[in-house]
């Protein structure tokens, strides 16, 4: 992938987070990048092609960020250690795991665009599945793991959609309150 192509996609994600889907105008993004519309057409198959690639980039980056953060803790780490590490990554100025404006923009766009809705659905499922796998090591069934994964995920989604969105440091504080509820070892969840 070329540097100019990456710039178009990165700037598109910034614009989406700032102004929503309505802000994704090629002329506006070109001006922000100081690039020509010809550059855009060299790299993308029109506005629809750009939209597809922009959505694919966001989906890939979102899933990779979460999966990488989980993997960096190590396979032998317990669930609490993994969630503690994820909690540390939620901080002001970081877009790694918590970028409310972009999540809100994508969810709003998904309400009227079926392609975006499909991306949002896959993204929600991938995030929940990753959290479910972490929980699976300390609960008895996939169903219990799914239920346990919903709590932190729905907290994050809710934090993005309230107005104004919950600040990253506040969300991190909420997760820190939940950490003691995460069992250290298999079987601890049943005893608590």
UniProtKB/TrEMBL annotation:
| Annotated InterPro entries | Homeodomain-like_sf, HTH_TetR
PROSITE patterns, per database record:
HTH_TETR_2 (PS50977)
Molecular function terms from GO: DNA binding
Which Pfam family is one of those matched by this entry? TetR_N
Domain HTH tetR-type: residue ranges: 2-62
Could you list this entry's UniProt keywords, alphabetically sorted.
DNA-binding
Report if keyword DNA-binding is assigned. yes
According to the UniProt record, which residues make up the DNA-binding region? 25-44
Protein name per its UniProtKB record: TetR/AcrR family transcriptional regulator
């Amino acid at each position: 992938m070329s540097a100019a192509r990456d710039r178009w996609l990165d700037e598109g994600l910034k614009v989406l987070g700032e102004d929503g889907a309505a802000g994704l105008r090629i002329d506006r993004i070109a001006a922000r990048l100081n690039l020509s519309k010809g550059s855009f057409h060299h790299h993308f198959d029109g506005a629809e092609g750009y939209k597809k690639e922009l959505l694919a980039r966001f989906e890939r980056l979102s899933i990779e960020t979460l999966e990488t953060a989980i993997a960096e803790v190590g396979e032998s780490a317990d669930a609490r250690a993994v969630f503690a590490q994820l909690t540390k990554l939620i901080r002001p100025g970081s877009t790694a795991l918590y970028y409310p404006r972009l999540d809100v923009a994508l969810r709003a766009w998904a309400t009227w665009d079926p392609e975006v809705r499909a991306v949002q659905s896959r993204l929600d499922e991938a995030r929940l599945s990753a959290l479910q796998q972490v929980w699976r090591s300390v609960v008895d069934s996939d169903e219990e793991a799914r239920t346990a994964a919903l709590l932190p995920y729905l907290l994050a989604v809710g934090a993005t959609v309230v107005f104004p969105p919950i600040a990253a440091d506040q969300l991190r504080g909420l997760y820190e309150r939940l950490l003691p509820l995460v069992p250290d070892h298999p079987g601890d969840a049943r005893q608590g």
